[in-house]
Amino acid sequence: MSDLAYRRVLLKLSGEALMGAEDYGIDPVVIGRIAREIMEVREAGAEIGLVIGGGNIFRGAGLAAAGMDRVTGDQMGMLATVINALAMQDALEKIGGKVRVMSALKINDVCEDYIRRRAVRHLEKGRIGIFAAGTGNPFFTTDSAAALRAIEINADLLLKATKVDGVYDRDPKKHADAVRFEELDHDEVIARDLQVMDTAAFALCRDHGIPLRVYDISVPGNLMRILRGDSIGTLVRARR
Q1: pLDDT tens per residue across span 198-230
Q2: Beta strands per DSSP E along 20-151
């Protein structure tokens, strides 16, 4: 633990990160590799919670744009995050992890209800907490859920794991000359409309002083390097 820069972290994984090279669903090789990285930092002494999106299975906002009722679409998306959480729980337990899935929706036959004090206690006991079903409310993304859970568990750092190696001034997939930022403050991200997370999530982090690091999950070992204090990706922090 002495060589870790952060004691407790909240890791936000997109559902798409679990797809790997697949077009849909979960790639067993990818989820296995991510699970091993999570276990590595847990065994090093870090307390870690996860929020996983559901975009690899279902994206409610997309169907809402096509005419589906938005509340119904978002509820379906929340259920997709529970599927991903159970898959990650299985991957972690297969390599010796102690895991608790806690859902913002009541699904008691498959996981626990999310209760803040119980979640913190799980982390203190060395268990990995996976917080599913977003905030339990429509119109809020899993990015907002990750920011909220990070605040509730008193995380030292919120990690946004993506397929991009940080925050850029514009889409690096569309613009070859896009510039990556090493460090930003929350207000700069909101003012520049840098949409790596939604504005509500950034505002929550800003108002509660939670630093955020955006990094590339596809590079093996990045998670451990960040927890040891290496400057990987982009750090978004309070204005100095």
Answers
A1: 889 989 999 999 999 999 999 999 999 999 999
A2: 47-52, 99-103, 112-113, 128-132
